[in-house]
């Protein structure tokens, strides 16, 4: 069978400004919380992409109304009580959807639901949410004793627990906090390493119970709560591709506007600055408790660095595009603490190493680290391994020399229109 591909010509300087699509994490959570609210609320500028459309469909299957109004969504919630779905709920490619929804469904008294997903999602570890949810009293079963989807949930009977996250994961934290809204007593999550805090900010936006004290976050059983409109900031993870593209293409200057600048997401900015990047940013306003502003990137000769392992959870989805920057830097870049990347949409450590080699870049791969020899890339072919971030990051890595990208449509999981935006900024038609 013919596989689709996209040939990108070498890109000249990138110039201009853009707005990237809405934040994926906030869109997933906004749809879920509006589905649990009472009455109607609008989600302004949400991400409408593969992953978040899976969430919209899932919440509809659970009884919420989700209507498109131009670029926005209008959601009519079910209150805290969802409807039993008539069929298996398909979470597509979205880990965030499956894990957070497991938390919500565990709390639904008597409701039965089965969650599945695509081949990638069915390979990903679900034991990390199933185990602590079972400790709260949830009844969940699935493949490999509940470690893999499809997973069947019979909701109800939850009691709060205190749970210390064994791996830094905002998805696990969020699943437990959502379950905690339906549990007797207090549910506490302790995170030794901070992760993105969108769930906590949205709990506050909707007036849901939340106490945060250092590494501890607590919630308790929620009373029915009214819907409230919510504006989604631009996705920092999507902006990152254009920032790095500008940094490594001579003569470039790109400004991304209206982008989320939550510091639990922007670890990449620190690493790039340390590499010598000419980057400026400013918070201009707050939306739904999230800081929003602009970021400007100008072409900069970069140098290799040894990345602080503590920054990885604050840039977990940006490691592929950091590898693109490292490929163009002078000298070696060492990126540690990557074990979580092995269980994303693809094994991203292996996918990064494969594509760097395909572009003529020296790379060594360890169990949880990468060592990349900078100095530029050669024209070649990019294999996304069915992973949106790999497709986009390596389009960026090869931008100055041109590249063939196999199955470019994977980008639509988080960024429909990515290649059009890239071509526009490159001055191509
Ligand atoms: O909570 C979220 O919205 C996300 C958390 C991260 O996953 P983990 O919780 O597995 O680290 C991230 O990789 C994913 O893209 C989105
Ligand atoms: C890991 C990602 O998403 P998810 O876990 O929701 O599939 C991602 O978007 O890079």
UniProtKB/TrEMBL annotation:
InterPro entries (UniProt xref): Enolpyruvate_Tfrase_dom, Enolpyruvate_Tfrase_sf, EPSP_synthase, EPSP_synthase_CS, RNA3'P_cycl/enolpyr_Trfase_a/b
Question: Taxonomically, which superkingdom?
Answer: Bacteria
Residue limits of the Enolpyruvate transferase domain? 11-422
Q: What are the binding positions for 3-phosphoshikimate in this chain?
A: 24-25, 29, 169, 171, 317, 344
- Give binding positions for phosphoenolpyruvate: 24, 95, 124, 171, 348, 389
Q: What is its EC number?
A: 2.5.1.19
Q: Which reaction does it catalyse?
A: 3-phosphoshikimate + phosphoenolpyruvate = 5-O-(1-carboxyvinyl)-3-phosphoshikimate + phosphate
- This protein's major location comes to cytoplasm
A single Gene Ontology biological process assigned to it is: chorismate biosynthetic process
Keyword hit for Transmembrane helix: no
Please name one Pfam family that this protein belongs to: EPSP_synthase
Entry keyword set: Amino-acid biosynthesis, Aromatic amino acid biosynthesis, Cytoplasm, Transferase
A GO CC term attached to the entry: cytoplasm
Q: Which residues form the active site?
A: 317 (proton acceptor)
Q: In which pathway does it act?
A: Metabolic intermediate biosynthesis; chorismate biosynthesis; chorismate from D-erythrose 4-phosphate and phosphoenolpyruvate: step 6/7
Instruction: Give the Gene Ontology MF terms in alphabetical order.
Output: 3-phosphoshikimate 1-carboxyvinyltransferase activity
Q: Where in the cell is it found?
A: Cytoplasm
The family database entries (CDD domains) matched by this protein are listed as: EPSP_synthase
Q: How does it assemble?
A: Monomer.
What does the UniProt record say this protein does?
A: Catalyzes the transfer of the enolpyruvyl moiety of phosphoenolpyruvate (PEP) to the 5-hydroxyl of shikimate-3-phosphate (S3P) to produce enolpyruvyl shikimate-3-phosphate and inorganic phosphate.
Q: What family does the database annotate?
A: Belongs to the EPSP synthase family.
This protein's name: 3-phosphoshikimate 1-carboxyvinyltransferase
Organism, as annotated: Thermus scotoductus
Lineage, broadest ranks: Bacteria, Thermotogati, Deinococcota, Deinococci, Thermales
Q: Which gene encodes it?
A: aroA
């Amino acid at each position: 069978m013919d596989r689709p591909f996209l040939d990108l010509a070498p890109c000249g300087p990138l110039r201009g400004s853009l707005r990237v699509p809405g934040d994926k994490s906030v869109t997933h959570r906004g749809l879920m919380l509006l589905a649990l609210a009472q009455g109607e609320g609008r989600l302004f500028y949400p991400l409408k992409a593969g992953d978040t459309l899976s969430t919209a469909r899932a919440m509809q299957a659970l009884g919420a109304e989700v209507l498109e109004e131009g670029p926005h969504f209008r959601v009519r919630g079910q209150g805290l009580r969802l409807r039993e779905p008539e069929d298996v709920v398909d979470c597509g490619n979205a880990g965030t959807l499956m894990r957070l929804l497991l938390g919500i469904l565990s709390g639904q008294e008597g409701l039965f639901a089965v969650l599945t997903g695509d081949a990638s999602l069915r390979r990903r570890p679900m034991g990390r949410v199933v185990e602590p949810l079972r400790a709260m009293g949830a009844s969940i079963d699935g493949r490999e004793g509940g470690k893999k989807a499809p997973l069947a949930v019979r909701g109800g009977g939850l009691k709060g627990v205190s749970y210390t996250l064994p791996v830094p994961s905002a998805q696990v934290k969020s699943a437990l906090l959502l379950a905690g809204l339906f549990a007797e007593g207090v549910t506490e999550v302790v995170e030794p390493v901070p992760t993105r805090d969108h769930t906590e900010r949205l709990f506050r936006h909707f007036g849901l119970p939340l106490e945060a004290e250092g590494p501890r976050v607590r919630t308790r059983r929620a009373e029915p709560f009214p819907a409230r409109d919510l504006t989604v900031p631009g996705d920092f993870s999507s902006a990152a591709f254009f920032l790095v593209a500008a940094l490594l293409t001579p003569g470039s200057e790109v400004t991304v506007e209206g982008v989320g600048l939550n510091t639990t997401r922007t670890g990449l900015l620190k690493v790039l600055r340390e590499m010598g990047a000419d980057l400026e940013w400013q918070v201009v306003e707050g939306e739904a408790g999230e800081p929003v502003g602009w970021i400007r990137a100008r072409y900069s000769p970069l140098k290799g660095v040894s990345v602080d392992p503590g920054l990885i959870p604050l840039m977990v989805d940006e490691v592929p595009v950091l590898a693109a920057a490292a490929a163009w830097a002078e000298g070696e870049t060492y990126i540690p603490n990557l074990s979580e990347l092995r269980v994303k949409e693809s094994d991203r450590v292996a996918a990064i190493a494969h594509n760097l080699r395909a572009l003529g870049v020296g790379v060594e791969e360890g169990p949880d680290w990468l060592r990349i020899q900078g100095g530029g890339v050669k024209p070649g072919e990019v294999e996304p391994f069915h992973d949106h971030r790999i497709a986009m990051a390596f389009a960026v890595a090869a931008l100055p020399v041109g590249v063939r990208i196999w199955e470019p449509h994977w980008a639509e999981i988080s960024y429909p229109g990515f290649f059009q935006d890239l071509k526009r900024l490159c001055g191509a038609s």
